[in-house]
Amino acid sequence: MQVDTTRNIEFPMYLPSVDNILNFNMDELIKAPNSNFIPMSNQPYQTTSPEIVEDYIIKRGQPFVLTGTTQGWSRNNMFTLDFLSERYSEMELINSPRNNETHTDLQGWRMKDFISYLQVSPEERNPKHLYGKDIACPREWQEYLSHKLQPQYSYKSRFDLVSHLPDYLQPETLLVYIGSNGTYTPGHIDMCGSLSQNLMVSTDQDAFAWWFIVPTEYKDEALKFWGDKGGDVYNESRFIRPIDLLGAPFPIYVFKQRPGDFIFVPPDSVHQVVNCGPGISTKVAWNSISLKSLPISYFSSLPHTRRMAKPELFRIKAIAYYTLRKIMGDVENTNFNTIDVNDVIDIIAPLLEIFHNILQTESILIPKPNYPYCNGETIPFLQPFKYFNGDRIQDRRCDHCNSDIFNRCYHCETCKTDDGQGKDFCFDCVSSGIGCEFHFKVMVLKEFISHSKLKKELSSFYEIYKNLLAHSGRRPKEVDDIITKSTDRVSDECGFLTTATVAYHVVFYSSQKKIKCHRCEKRFKKFSIIFCTNCSSRFCEQCVVNTFGQNFQVLMKRNEWECFCCKGLCDCSNCTSNSNSSNHPRIINGNQQLSLPYNNNNNNNNNNNNNNNNNNNINNNNNNNNNNNNNNNNNNNNNNNNNNNNNNINNNNNNNNNNINNNNINNNHNNNNNGNNLNSSYSSLNALSSLSQQQSYGNYDNYNNNNNNNNNYNNNNGHIQILKSGRQYDDEQSSSSGSGSSNSTPTKSRPRNGGDDGLMSHFSNHNNNNNNNHHNNHSHNNNHMMSHHHNNNNNNNNNNNNPTTSSLSSLSTSLSSSSTSTQKPMDVHSKKRPIVLDNDKPKGRPPKNLKEWTSTHKFIISLIELFRSSNNAILGKPNPHYKSIENLPPLVQLYLSQRKAFGGVLWAKTNSCPLLPCIWVKDLSVIPPNTKLLPSLIQGKKIVVLFFGDQDQEEYVGIVGKKSIFSFDEVNQTLLLKCGEVPLAQLEDLFNTTEPEIAMKKDIAAFNYKNQIEEKEEGLYVKQELYNNKKII
Length: 1033
What we know:
Blueprint: H1 18-22, H2 26-31, E1 37-39, E2 41-44, H3 50-60, E3 64-67, H4 81-87, E4 98-99, E5 104-105, H5 111-118, E6 130-136, H6 139-148, E7 175-179, E8 184-188, E9 195-203, E10 208-213, H7 219-228, H8 242-245, E11 252-257, E12 262-265, E13 271-276, E14 281-288, H9 294-307, H10 316-332, H11 341-361, E15 386-387, E16 396-397, E17 404-405, E18 408-416, E19 422-425, H12 427-431, E20 444-447, H13 451-471, H14 476-494, H15 499-509, E21 515-516, E22 523-524, E23 529-531, E24 538-540, H16 541-547, H17 552-555, H18 573-577, E25 586-588, E26 591-593, E27 612-613, E28 623-625, E29 647-649, E30 653-654, E31 657-658, E32 664-665, E33 671-672, H19 685-692, E34 702-707, E35 720-724, E36 727-730, E37 766-769, E38 778-783, E39 793-795, E40 804-805, H20 808-816, H21 855-869, H22 890-897, E41 902-908, E42 916-921, H23 935-939, E43 942-947, E44 957-961, E45 965-966, H24 973-977, H25 981-993, H26 1001-1005, E46 1013-1016, E47 1019-1022, H27 1024-1029
Parallel strand pairs: 1-11, 2-3, 15-20, 27-40, 28-39, 29-35, 30-33, 34-37
Antiparallel strand pairs: 3-12, 4-5, 4-6, 6-7, 7-14, 8-13, 9-12, 9-14, 10-11, 10-13, 16-17, 18-19, 18-20, 21-22, 23-24, 25-26, 31-32, 34-38, 35-36, 41-42, 41-45, 42-43, 43-44, 46-47
Helix pairs in contact: 10-11, 11-13, 11-14, 13-14, 19-20, 21-25
């Protein structure tokens, strides 16, 4: 039974004829080889206990039938058309009857009109198949059923948890179904995981109904099967013929329902019904929520209902709260010796866990910084909650997903709904970046009652539960373990960051500047970025979902996360070129450390020298023999000036310094560079950051930097060109002599990942010697990381030298003192409050004008503002000299060549991006012929669009709901920031090339594709004649 009686279908959809639906022999289908049809289990009503029924529908997830339910009823004549005609002839039928031939609900009918229709012979009826469904049940019927049926089965009895809600929250689901031969209910799922009960109370002329029910455990398979057939079980859009159900990848329970048969449908079960026989059958149906089905409703059904944006007819969260409060009140006032304590514990335990989960989800708990959704920034809690006015509580819904708001939500006081109230948005939607389109940053937090009051109530419930456990004979330690496991389970289910906490982060981040993703190098708002807690990398939501196939919403709720770089899964250019290295920097206690599998053997024999050796855990079989035996070795190369020596370093460099006293220093390398005078002074802040965060991917062992300063000396700088994966990185060279002049122009470059690749990470055995007339030299020998093993014998004979093997951090400190550059580091995350362009209330410092938008963004914004100022404004201008036709994006070319096939420019949200520019397609002949279409296009619920962007992307051709689109002037800053640069650039090309139409929502609302779509065996497709004739509609 479908409880949601509101239907918005305006246009007929393609359906099999009723004759085809009735063309089956159930006995033959059941006996067919490898048949998946199974007769339902059934037992007599009088001899079957409610526990047996509950075992089937809840534990097994299978339907069950009680036969002979109405046997012995004295007032069976009450359930007749004559009774309805006499007592309720003027009763108005809401969205009923339904025309099964066109799948539309008729309006304005009364009971007497429908009964008059049924009294006409089937051959003369017009329309031929009208189904009286979702008719309000007469009061006399309801009272009689409550009197005759057991309380466990009765409508809104004490066993139905819906009865615990306040009257204004209780839905009315007791409905009557009156059908004749060929009328049917398509495949559907009852809302919110409710239990469906259906009793056939009367028939005439041997009428009956066939039921087809899929077990609960095969829900996902059934959803896919109906979807492949062009159906949607959440909208009753497809009845699949029994012959087509044969061989489905799941079992199907079938039953022939006759008068007195009472059918119980398990929660979350896909089912369909067809009425057969020459007469008319009358059924009464209702839905309920039981103690055993409530966990299924909350944990399984509600997420699906929210994603489908269906109204949450059963207030599941409120049901859990009011039921728990009633039971706890009864237990508290009851003597434990008079009740079965263990039964009460079994009842309370799931309710208590659900209520705890609800409060935990709505709690805003901001932890200390450095978790995946926050990188070193303290998130302040600035907004106090405001209270909703009015006596009614828990009576509001999210204005986006229609889900029930239990107590807390975000509220926009500026935008008003039809009833004059502000718009509400649940934490689930806001945590996904969905809220008020125009006032996202200024939405306020509201609640019905104090959250702290509810938490105190929860604590009192746990005390009662704890007393029950103790009274059951359990030991104190066992009681504490049960309570601890329950609370820990709730914490694990809600995540390190609760849904409300994530939503608060999203609103807070919406006014901050964008951050660059490590992989795609695009910039996104911080709420779309997740940070690695093991290194400095960060990844955007698009890369996490589309490239690595992980759930971004789950990852961002964790307290720690090891990124794809750390796991060796990242496919960016930097990570791919260094896939063989294992030297990814790790952050331990806030400091990056280098952990490399190398052995470092340094034998330093120094006489009369001061040695400071700092080794960076490097395992390279190096033998560094520094023999200083008071020899007078003077490197006099005063007349040898080598300017701008470009050394392509890919292997091992050999520097042979020929000294006066025939002390030859031979480094067994490949290149011989005599007397290279190089002085590397890293003045860039980015370089300093790289030195302290050293990553080495190359084949380099030692870096010997001998800097000798002379007051009257001109330094000649060697320009080193480092090769990495076919890319060239220019290392900045500058002089740091006291009063000398530099003859070189620094060449600045940034690593692609914003500072992760160190500028000194690729040096191997590079000797940087500045030889002056003074001989008080300081040799800095830095043993850097290597990806290869070498045996190097470096024998440095220096006179009166002080060899110092310094660490990277000390070298960075020494260089920073001589730094003169003002270049900013790439995306270095500061723990201070970020400066944002549109911060209305800056804290601690005045706002600064930072570049927030690209030129493309500004161009699109100017068009939007122009269109808002006047609907008659001309957007775009034909410019034949802008670009040649072949250089325009493919979608722009298509629009120019077949302009009449399109309806105009608009925006739409997709699974991967909340906002993309697109063009509304009115003539389907412009899309590929093999595009599979949906029935909702015929119904007028959705439209076809072509998205700007890469033409080979999966969502190039999109089918979007009319509620998921934005007119050209409806977008706001929050949504526009999430749109990629490529689609916006192509949209700019369109406006610079022509004056495109702007799609209007009123035109879209009245449009459908029913004349352009045909059904084939595989599904719905564009009619072939459109491609043959190219007829523009």
